[in-house]
Specification:
globular, 7 strands, alpha/beta, seven-stranded parallel sheet
Length: 240
């Protein structure tokens, strides 16, 4: 069962665009793809959510949401305030398994960071990943502060016996500063996992056709792309 959980070190980190890039690369390789967004918050009925944005950028993927809450809050809080049932890990796992039965790849996009609560019992995306026995790809920021957030996320994954596939930078600036350049070498050590790509800042604003044509260049071969960690890191090596 080819299920990958896409989590982040925080909110607004680039998870949706990263998910779209993963989907686009898989589609280009001839694979069928489904994208599952367990809990969509901050979107009104009828408005496109993260799964729809992934489809807009990546192309013909199957999309699914399990719940939608109007306020832009953590899923458990948004569900409580809306007076609606929360999403449980078992529901996420069941939905992902059903999608996996008919697709080559299922991408499960979380909400916020790994340990954001989905229900009043404290269940998180990590619990769903454990039920699925699925690897987790961590989408991280490029700049100052990302080492601590990435290390904490990776530590939480290890403590739960979950596999961290690697780290993907959700937004690499056109003119990286010293912190971003240094972080290229330091992030793998902080995560205990490889750096598997870097999405350029503003990638989500590209025309869909251009996004799909370029997506593979942002992802390492492990994610279906051609991005070269050593070449990228050498090109952005910080001055001494």
């Amino acid at each position: 069962m080819a299920v990958t959980v896409v989590s982040g070190t925080g909110t607004e980190i680039g998870k949706t665009v990263a998910t779209a890039a993963l989907a686009a690369a898989a589609l280009a390789a001839g694979r069928t793809v489904a994208v599952l967004k367990p809990a969509q918050t901050g979107v009104a009925p009828g408005e496109p959510g993260d799964a729809a944005e992934t489809a807009r950028l990546a192309g013909p993927v199957t999309t699914a949401e399990l719940a939608r809450y109007p306020e832009p809050l953590a899923p458990a809080t948004a569900a409580r305030r809306a007076g609606r049932p929360p999403v449980r890990p078992a529901e996420i796992a069941e939905a992902a398994e059903k999608l996996a039965a008919g697709h080559d790849l299922v991408l499960v996009e979380g909400a916020g960071g790994l340990l954001v609560r989905f229900d009043g019992d404290g269940a998180t995306l990590a619990d769903a990943a454990r039920l699925l026995d699925a690897p987790v790809l961590v989408v991280a920021a490029a700049g100052l502060g990302t080492l601590n957030a990435t290390a904490l996320t990776a530590e939480a994954l290890r403590a739960r016996g979950l596999d961290c596939t690697g780290v993907l930078l959700g937004s690499w600036p056109a003119e990286p500063g010293l912190a971003e350049r240094c972080n290229l070498a330091d992030l793998p050590a902080a995560a205990g996992a490889p750096l598997l790509g870097a999405l350029p800042h503003g990638a989500g604003a590209l025309p869909p056709a251009e996004f799909r044509a370029r997506a593979g260049r942002w992802l390492a071969p492990e994610l279906g792309g051609t991005w070269d960690d050593a070449e990228f890191t050498a090109r952005h090596r910080p001055p001494r």
